[in-house]
Fold this sequence. Notes:
The complex is a heterodimer of chains A (about 425) and B (about 90). With about 425 residues, chain A is α/β, with parallel strands linked by helices. Chain A has twelve helices and 19 strands. In chain A, about 30% of the residues lie in helices and about 25% in strands. In chain A, helix 2 packs across helix 10 (about 375-385). Chain B is mostly beta strands. Chain B has a domain at about 15-25 and about 50-85: Folate-binding fold, CATH 3.30.2270.10. Chain B contains one helix and six strands; from the N terminus they run E-E-E-H-E-E-E. The longest helix of chain B is centred in the middle third of the chain and has 9 residues, at about 35-40. The radius of gyration of chain B is 14 Å and the shape is globular.
Amino acid sequence: MKQRYSIWSLLRGSLSQHEAWPPAWRDTEPRGKYDAIIVGGGGHGLATAYYLAKNHGMANVAVLEKGWLGGGNTGRNTTIVRSNYFFPESARLYDFSLKLYENLSSELNFNIMLSQRGVITLAHSRHDAEIMARAANAMHMNGIDAELLGREAVIERVPLLDTSTAARFPVWGGICQARAGCARHDAVAWGYARAASGLGVDIIQNCEVLGFEYQGSRAVGVKTTCGSIRSDRIGIAAAGHSSVLAALAGFRLPVTSYALQAMVSEPVKPILDTVVLSPATAAYVSQSDKGEMVMGAGLDLFPSYAQRGSFAGTQRTIAGVLELFPSLGRLPLLRQWAGIVDVVNDSSPIIGATPVDGIFINCGWGTGGFKAIPAGGWLFAHILATGRNHDLAEPFQLERFVTGRLIDEAGASGIAH
Amino acid sequence: MMQITCPWCGKCDEWEFEYGGPSGVVRPPLEAPDETWGDYLFFRDNVKGSSVERWRHSYGCGQWFNVERDSVTHRVSAAFRFDESGP
């Protein structure tokens, strides 16, 4: 039933007024047993299912989603993809992801609208500029593209910025990763869902996991709102709800769930053709293809499972954005929302085994999970299929919180998230 | 916006306060094994629902105290000093 999308299928579709398109994926009821179960039908879960089928020939796989596909953080982020990280482990991981993104539209036969418009991180002081030079050096050492920009270059690239002498956050320069940019987040979820479904994966929505089933100490299935489903390989990819599932399985994670807000203005004509990020205000801004200004900033810094964010956080975000772009001050907000992100102390993910045999986890992406979807899926599929960590995932194990071998990107990459 | 009743200053808006981790996390003895220290430093219950947390009235009196709060509804059901027992 999977139909190849092309200009010809589009023309064929037009003959029936575009009313005869088949669904992009099969929405199914669960069968009793699978080779692997993925808990969480967001980007990471769907990508995991796709790579299980594609890379490892495991198509007898179910993705269980308690709500609707991509309705969590996958549909709530600000769509930024980049790999401008500091430590070699992170740089390898995120650049692997960005490279997969670069080929994803043709791989999935689904236009994810990747736009490598560059991400510019601003320096607001001499000290910022010095730290940025250090970050650029680290990125070059890691083989990642990075370009230091002087004040004039930033002004030329982003004329919308307030660069007057009265600016509260003066622009000293910045660092640009030209390969970074945006992608359509819903399309990433739908593209992976369609491709996975086409390879035989079962996608089950409105199916919440309520507990796990054991044989001895080994997990052999899940109890869900759709009944019991058996599998001796269970992968959790539940972002902000990772701790909830871990508690059901009887272990804890080094994770705290916070609300991360985002918002968009009403659409306007093109005024910003790159992504601008300011560590000082924590604000980041881009313009969507529809013309909306897409804005976000720091976390609401208290634990939350409410996908709405606090008004104090909204005010802080807007204050930060307006210090950079005062001309946006008269734009009405169109929508504001929040996603629940799984923040780990070192701002690096966890992809691997858990204390419970048969249960694996992919979590801890915190505020930056969207950019990592292809890599997260690829690496998580690898351990689910082979039982061994992929080389890229080896540094990102739970053990690091006992050994102390943290990969502390929180401070190192000098970026808000 | 959340409002929290500081035991010293009374009810104030959320932005005056800072969250400081869950309450009742007990520091292990120095000779405890690495697993215990890792657990103490990093691993959290991260409760979905009601739990007791430590907050500080940073832009007020500067005092630390306990807050019982629901992480889904953000409803604050109690705020009490460290030398008081909660509800």
